[in-house]
Amino acid sequence: MSRQSTLLSPPTYSSTSNDPTTSIEQHRQKVDEEFQKIFRRAQEAINQGIQPTLIPEGSSGSYFVYGLEGEILGVFKPKDEEPFASLNPKWPKFFQRMLCFCCFGRACLIPNTGYLSEAAASIVNEMLQLDVVPTTRIVKLASPSFFYSRFFGHYDVRPKEGSFQLFVNGYESGNTVFARWNYDKTLLTDEEDHKFRILFQKMCIVDYVIRNTDRHMDNLLVRHVPGKEINLAAIDNGLAFPVRHPECISRFRTFPFRWSNFSWAQCEFDPILKQHVLSMLTPNFVHRLCVDLKKLFRHGIGNSNYMMVNSQLRVVRGQIWNLRMALLSNETPAEMAQRPPVVVNRNSDIAGVSQKLATGTIGTPQNIQIVHNSKCASNCAEHIEHEEIEHFLK
Q1: What is the pLDDT of residues 33-75, one digit of tens each?
Q2: CB-side neighbour CA atoms (13 Å) of 338
Q3: 7: part of which helix (H) or strand (E)?
Q4: What is the CA radius of gyration of the chain?
Q5: 162-208 pLDDT, tens per residue?
Q6: Each residue of 183-216: b (16+ CB within 10 Å) or e?
Q7: 371 within 8 A of 343, measured Cβ to Cβ
Q8: Which regions of 118-251 does DSSP assign to beta strands (E)?
Q9: Which residues contact 218 (CB under 8 A, 6 or more apart)?
Q10: For FRET with 332, which of 68, 98, 242, 259 sits at 20 to 30 Å CA-CA?
């Protein structure tokens, strides 16, 4: 692969036949191989002069990347063109940063790490084998179409690091499709409605685990060919993986899960989907997921901010705990979204935690703590009993 384009693959494990996560790693390896084939086609097209084009919509520098025949292969989002980055080509965010700094960003998120969040959401989706997030990886691309710093009117076209998400063809925004369904009730058969409910609940699970703060009907895409195909794609996952629960930072900007108001979220989780997810949520799975996420986040943020990364993982573990309890309690996605926020810590993550609540073995011996967040503005973080933790770790 040329200097102008490189692929930074996520970490993978070498699994043995008696490892329950073998199927997960095999699935991810297959996904990686398919992604690399498409990415090489995109790199070849750029080398042949078919340059990416800026997407007008959105608040950051996002680009359609094409193949040799002009087909869209993916969406590239450079790190230094994120909403509040220095080279963002969209003027509204520049004025917001300069003139409305009091409304700058989201206090629960690490600035300019949206590209990492995009790739991390893809990892969560792949490890849970839900297939609702298009494959996304961290790559480096160079193109004169991108925005670069200028020195005396000149700029150097160098590779930019960012997220590359495979493009999904034939999909429309949720607003468009749902309006069509509401207008003509006959478009969606009972069988298709049942299938879409499962897809919708899969998206709810991914959004809940990553604590997505920005799911709306424009980044929930649906492909529906009446009588033939129905599918869902959850894109734009850059505003996820907060360092603290939004409810614990502000009473006014809590970023609730908007999907909880839809009818598909008012039904109990599909039994097969519920059994599948519960079978995945083992201590070993949680450990491996957090290891992968930590490697990804530290790649972009650096070891100097490892406490910030650990804070992100505390929230992820807490969301997984709540997800498991919601499934065991036969709750609906809407009821799960109302659960009090939880954080789950390791002793090595935070010093000075006064009360030891649990100890379990995950990979190597680790002290696991589920703690009450006394600084929560809404005072709603949940305390979990010692016996429940021991049961979870068995």
Answers
A1: 999 999 999 999 999 999 999 999 888 899 999 999 999 999 9
A2: 8
A3: strand 5-8
A4: 21
A5: 999 999 999 999 999 999 999 999 999 999 999 999 999 999 999 99
A6: eeeeebeeebeebbbbbbbbbbbbbbbbbbbbbe
A7: yes
A8: 136-141, 160-166, 172-173, 220-225, 229-234
A9: 173, 174, 175
A10: 242
How far is it, in rounded angstroms, from Cα 264 to Cα 269? 9
Mode of pairing for the β-strands spanning 220-225 and 343-346: unpaired
Tell me which residue of 133, 137, 138, 126 sits closest to 289, measured CA to CA. 126
Q: Identify residue 277 by its one-letter amino acid code.
A: V
Secondary structure percentages of the chain, helix, strand, coil, to 5: 45, 15, 40
- Token look-up 């359609």 returns 64
* Single pTM value for the model: 0.84
Spatial separation of the C-alpha atoms in residues 199 and 132, rounded to whole Å: 7
Give CA–CA dist 122/150, Å, rounded: 34
CA of 86: how far to CAs of 94, 98, 131, 166, 170, in Å? 8, 11, 34, 26, 34
- Which residues of the chain form beta strands (DSSP E)? 5-8, 53-54, 63-66, 72-78, 136-141, 160-166, 172-173, 220-225, 229-234, 343-346, 360-362, 364-366, 368-371
Q: CB of 379 within 8 A of CB of 373?
A: no
